[in-house]
Write a structure and sequence with these properties.
Distance between the termini of chain A: 34 Å
Helix content of chain A: 25-40%
Shape of chain A: globular
Order of helices and strands of chain A: EEEHEHEHEEEHEHEHEHEH
Number of strands of chain A: 12
Radius of gyration of chain A: 18 Å
Oligomer: homooctamer
């Protein structure tokens, strides 16, 4: 069953050398997998790595998995499950900013992943541009971050504002927050891709984990 | 917890100086907020303003909030909750027109907001262009309005008709009423943006509140 | 070279039985054909039919074809060339209405085709809804038409207006007139497809000929 | 409450002169209307017309309305309710053709409306182009129709085939039948709008009623 | 040739009562009109109104028209021609703001129209959010405007920023400035429609004139 | 009821000569058909063919059909029901590859159909390009296949990788696996259509059956 | 400069083992390459392969290349240049069918490539479904082909028709022929992807070469 | 003319404190600016910064500017002009990879900007996945980079491949290279946003400069 660099369970080929290649282990994406498949994957993974992540896990799925895997921790707001040893040792901090309150679940996916990977994380939530003065007290915190994640739906203008005042690399996460012509996050995505302020990049809609992962690579 | 111009509750930064800056208080957008978050926000807001609006609130959410906040009023057709003192003192009137019966909930969001902010409101509902003669008896009322809100789905031709006969500024609200190639309001939105009759503008699909807010600024 | 019901020139298979099947001969669509191909097609067609139409022909193409085919007539505003005998004998009239002046070339493609096929045609140009009162003097003419073609760009609201007052079948032709979010006629097309007034149908953007052809079938 | 040409119930303006203007009465579109609104509309309509149509009505809505309005008939496959006297007197027939079995509900909306309005209707169902020989036995029926309605989802190629062999005017109804890149009927709609065979037009996705209405105008 | 409320030149129906109905005369849209058509329209208009506007006129068109109509003035940056008497008498001012230098032609279309209609206009150009501190010295000017027009391409975040600090009604004009995923102004348009800051509306892409017209109605 | 080449049940025209024409019998597409319709179709089909396929059947539908048709087999993972005699006799094998675990249901639709039609099938599941080394042990199996089906969602890069190393014809099936800007499979579809590696084609989103059918034609 | 399996010219890495891996050599895609780059690539390729293809080459580019590479042949209608020895030895034939005359250039790209690779090719041009009887005399030729390529723009219904009567695998090539809502080939592409007749697949818009390549793999 | 943090030239507000805030000076975007505007901007900038960048400059614009500003250097392949002192002092290197030869201009925009800002740059061009073995000799170079920029059009699968084997942060730049359903870079953009391999982000289509800027921030 052991091939070069992966474990073949038939329905899945576990990439157990991901950590060696990429510096981080494979992250299990829960949607579209049965509970039996998840169980088998975790069992196998635990033989090969000290660190298991499961993303977009639902609470009821977690409860079943928990029975077998006692050490599994679940961060419900981030839909993220984790098995392993947290690591706190880096200097500097990653900053996670949201435009609104509804963007927080996506933000927590990024923030908790970053913390579990041993990064210091600062959070500034609900400082969207409808009241841009709310950024003022945080200006120093923004300017001193090593990397910044900006999470926003609707027109996502917050990315450009942060990008205009912050020297660190900035990762935009468009969210599906909004209605009508927000088109499930397309407007926020397009807005971030077209930011007039240089120094920012973008990930997929609602992809908090991808932004956290990338921020970790920069902060490493 | 008090910063310059806002209250920091962590998950939310209440913009308590919005009224000073914009002439209207912040409006709480309910979707994506938990009932606990809504409770905390209202409690805090009541310390700083005499006027609280909650938009897109569901009936069952209102019933829970009502227990703590006795003075909270709910306009179910408009999904709008309100706390404070109504104000009736302006001259002139805002006119709210719909093309169909199905557009009325969006219209009421605009109309009730305008009334709560102290504007006189006139309503003309279900006068879409399939029977344009239905506009005839209202021609004088249309021509004498201070500002007009036109609410229509499908092809939204009513905006252009009103715009052709009315000297006041006209705000179009495309609605998601329709099926097939109405694409959830995109057709109505595009139709309104391309109106051949000058003197009109447009807000997001189903955004009755935004139109009411803007009409209030004009009527002020 | 003669097969069952068509002439095989290799690069083209002339459908010489179209007239028998459909009541109208094949119409030659000029774009994408070389001048040599057009020449050969016309030569061959003239052996089999008394009626040749070439659509979307450019003036300079016409001038070359004219040298060989003296009887060819060209209607430049409609980009339509014609060879044969015009026919005037039907009762009733087809009505062609445009919203603006820029829609006239598309309208002429429909109108001239209809006339060449022996229909009476009435034209009302530039009566878009920005000034809907301009329709008033034509109300009787609209109501008595056998079939109506409405040609409009931008939001194309004129279709719904006409459809609301006219008992005849109405064919909408969206045009690419407009800019920005008119998206080359998509907005007009969607508007016409979603007309709230029953009794209308739609053809492709700028397809005046298709509307004329269909009107002819109704008026037959 | 009686205005010029309509009845004003506030939430609705009944267009009681539609029949005089258009030759057909207003058709009540059920979606987005409450059961109370439907009741009031029917009550009022019955004072002014002998013919009431309600489209896109659900079965459970019908059962409630039936209690008050005994004479109301319901055609469940067509989601169409009807009150009045059927009329059978015209010559010729309208032909309703579907590409597949799943297109039948949309077809029945057209066919039943046509029958109620006094047209003879012929039906040919499930003759899509995957087996185009299935059209053969119906060739004569197709060629002798006064007007044809073609109802198809997916790529909707049937419209072009029928259009190539039939001299009557042809109305295409794209349906939302399909999956993946059929995009809820957009592919069928675009296919019909771009038909290479002249003599056809198109209505909105799933709009069987609109096609029936238009066919009635032609057959009149 | 004189009908009720318009002049019928065949290819155009001049709406000479527009001024009476709407408070402003009809504006001639040049694209799609021949130079001969423009000449005839101007000649006729001058008999009925003291104020003629021609929008989106090209320089070479203007030069030809100028020969016959000596009084015609041309504002090349705004592509706007004008004939008549300017009017300066209103209190307050309209403020026109652009995000970038490339947005200026659209801004001038709004600004010059407003000036010609007798409004005071202030301009603040190139203050996009990449350097939001550039707004600081203009804060008072922004807060005291009667109405504000914000013109921006790319992600158009400037609208939300202005909307957050300004109590006046704000009209957004998305521009086609940008590249790649700006999609010719669609991104800016969507961003403006989804602004998280209340108090703004939107017109079509690059429609400076429409914004100017609407601002004039508010400032009236 | 027997026509030339099909059975006419009214609501359906069974194409009983499909097998003669195409080499494979008609496949019954379950969605949009009632259980009564399915029953009648199967009954009739069994008189004319030894092979009945029903695609996209739900488990509960199968259970009802099974009561009447004892020999019906159901492959739940592939949503495919089958009645007839399996056939195993061909040389070579078809290879079915998925990028992820969530793509397996679509893959099984292809694989089981191929097996029932008498093809040898090899499966390689979950070898997406995030860990492209997982392909290494299968390189020989990939290079020796007669035809390959690649099934992938998200960005669907696996198709291009396989296409770069495999001399056989390759059929891509984009899946709706993904979130946000995967747009229900559009991104995967576009990616496959634009593959830079020659030798591949594409079917509709999630159309495993279509790919299996086509692979069978090649392997024949 | 020689690496494992490719030649590194810096701006290009020639894949000289493509033939070994895929059975066909790399095809040089001309657009976006300078004439100097093309010269260098051909020079280098000729050292390693007996077969050089250049696709989408313009006539004037060919003339320059011809000076240095005397043996280069150019098929202008197919925009395809070729250097090497043609090969004629296979049994069976590939059939290339177009719906219209304007689709021929795309068809020739497929047909000439197939011929150069040693396949027999039959062509049937201009048999679109507007006159489907034109297919009749070719029915036997269609049914006996080893593989069929169908090339069509507009609604591309021809693919489904051919697919309904032909037992061979069918490759659809949507073309950008059409106007208005054909959207540069999107409609044809969607139509082909949603074909109701099984047994067909699809390549990118106007990608005649890709279809020829794939047909060659099947016919091999 | 000097305000807080910027120079006001009316048509432009030069952000002379950008370098202090962001670590890099403002980059002048040439499109949409007249040559006179560019001259004035450069003149003014040179008073305040030692580093001037002009992006997307055309060769003929450069030649005019060069007359006044002798020190201006122009990198034509990157459309980038530069004035100032290059800086070479950082450890590590940024790696710029393209899928094809046509992607090189976008790559050079990134690479030259990085070099001018004092970064070591390595280039690997034309290693797209059609021949993924071409990556082999560069595996070490890829794994040791500090940051990687991947530039690809069409389906842009290269990003995922690189992302699967490289531990550094990876920035994707979709390009408009391709035809048909590549939709001017949309397919590449969507592919990159949906990459199944973690560790990558994305910028706007053809935005080489934005990627270079962001890479510089990471490498700093």
């Amino acid at each position: 069953m052991k091939n070069k660099g992966f474990i073949n369970l038939g329905f899945v080929k576990l990439d157990v050398e991901r950590e060696k290649r990429k510096g981080l282990p494979e992250i299990i994406y829960a949607p579209g997998k049965t509970i039996e498949q998840l169980k088998k994957i975790i069992r196998e993974f635990k033989k090969h790595t000290n660190l298991v992540f499961i993303s977009r896990l639902e609470n009821k799925q977690f409860k079943i998995l928990k029975k077998e895997h006692k050490g599994l921790e679940f961060f419900e707001s981030a839909r993220l499950a984790f098995f392993g040893k947290k690591n706190k040792e880096r200097n500097g901090y990653c900053l996670v900013i949201t435009a609104g309150t509804s963007d927080i679940p996506v933000a927590e996916e990024a923030a908790i992943f970053l913390e579990l990977m041993g990064n210091n994380v600062e959070r500034i939530y609900d400082v969207g541009v409808a009241g841009v003065h709310r950024l003022e007290p945080f200006r120093k915190k923004i300017r001193q971050a090593k990397v910044v994640i900006v999470i926003a739906g609707m027109e996502a203008a917050l990315l450009s504002i942060i990008s205009g005042i912050c020297p660190a690399p900035i990762i935009g996460v468009p969210t599906s927050v909004g209605y009508g012509a927000s088109f499930g996050g397309i407007t926020a995505l397009l807005g971030m891709l077209n930011s007039c302020a240089p120094g920012s990049v973008c990930v997929n809609i609602d992809n908090g984990l991808g932004a956290g992962y990338f921020a970790h690579l920069i902060n490493k």
